[in-house]
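Hi team,

Filling in the usual template for the complex we talked about on Friday. All components are listed, including any nucleic acid strands or ligand strings, so the model treats them as one assembly.

SUBMITTER: L.P.
PURPOSE: interface mapping
COMPONENTS: two
RESIDUES: 567
SEQUENCES:
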Amino acid sequence: MTALTTGTSPGPRARRRLRWNPAYAFVAPSVVLIAVFIVEPIVQSGWMSLHDWSMGEASHRMRGFGNYADLLHDSRFWNALKVTCLYTAGTAAGQVALGLLLAEALRRTTWFSSVLRTAFFFPFIASMAVVGIVWRFLLDPQVGLVDAWSGHLGLGHPNWLQSTSLALPTMIGVGIWKGFGFTMIVLLAAIQAIPTYLYEAARLDGAGRVAQFRHVTLPTLRPSVLFVTVIATIQGLQLFDLSYVMTGGGPVFHTESVVQYLYQRGFVDFSLGYASAIAWVLFVVILAVALVQLRVLRYRDVD
Amino acid sequence: MAAVVLAGAALATILPFLWMLGVALRPASDLYAHPASILPGHWSLDGFRAVVDQLPFGRLVLNTFVFAGGTCVLLLFFDSLTAYALARLEFRGKNALFVLILATLMVPFQVTLIPVFLTLFHLGWLNTEHGLILPRATSALGIFMLRQFFVQLPKELDEAARIDGAGPWTIYWRIILPLSKPALASLFVIQFAALWNDFLWPLVVTSDPSKRTLPAALTMFSSSDGVDHAALMAGAAISLSPLALAFLLAQRFFVQGVAASGLK
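RESULT (copied from the run log):
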């Protein structure tokens, strides 16, 4: 009965619902692209991860959480996860420590510090592919500059990228070099926003440069430090280009990352279901980090 | 003293790039004879010549420009349209749409990579420009950044324009966009840099060497046997140069853009 009355005499609300709103034309292109290339693929990826899904086959066998169960027993996956976590922890710690140190050192703006800032930031502009190629040759046992210099310095020729004990630490070093400029820039902006009277007050109390850093800079900067740590972590977890270009995951999987294993399973072996399950595990790990970030940002607002 | 240490550290940071240029500009014999020297003993342009001869180089540079530039232009247009509607128009489902867009920011793109690859495969769009460009032509981060910028422009602008008879399109195109040049420039810079440097996406979508972009093609080149060091370093230098040049000329936008992208 009620349905009939609303149907025969449309109220102002219902009439508004029927009217074409030009705003829809504005959002349409993005909505279509997001629906087709982000939302639908997310759902499909979850669906695929529950199937035995190979490229080109007509039928796809449902296997519930079988792919995930297989991942639990897949030593190559656990190895990739370990490599990724070590790389992430190493690069994040290195980038934040170095970025913080340099941001503090370059706090005052002079032409000199802005030249240095440009130099430190420069590796961030280069693509991981270029970085990987250049470093592979810098470390090359025959023509590499780093290798030649380490020989002159009496460190020998340790075969940086072929040694099972050195390959990952070397890659972490390159990762830190590539990204510390970003951390530095973000932290520098945060440091320069600290009111100078805080430093003046500290100086009047007899605080030296180190004490100022410990008691003024660090406490004020805590939210920004947490923030860049999360960014560096999320980037580290997505390691692919660098290991793909520098070592191809070798020697014997010692630098193979999760995304690289995903690439191998999905786009080389075409086990799309299994690769999707790997993607979802990565998603959950990154989501956990992102949730930490949300809390950090909320903390920042309260601040 | 501190200044000397810092200057040394800065020099060490960019040393790999200087060495890259040095290798690109010397013959292989010189490199094997003096691997420890940064500057060439003999200078030669053979590396740059070789990279042009051995790769379809003009094609690759063009592909990369079409991919990064074309995607950026579309992305700026689509993102700003959506951001404008979200910031300054009223419509049903607006809040839901905004929340949905924010939620997609949480999802790493590796999750969507396989289904999108399948979709492109079924459409016959692998190894095509539109296959590379369209899936990247809108960005949740861009919509979010622009919305935040549009929201803080004074509302009176729209009202005045509406009284003068302007519709939403005119307000968007003639008032909001011109006022938003700094935000648009920052977004353009971060997106262009990210796309120019993108590796995994072009690697997955293109297998045909003549359709590849520079980063993906260079690595293909580097893994083949008998690599010409000078050519490879020349290729790396050329692939780095547009962004390096843009960075040195317009640092402000780079730094603003990067600081903003940090919000991701």
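MY TAKE: Chain B touches chain A through 90 residues (CB under 8 Å). Residues 1-44 of chain B form one domain.

Thanks, L.
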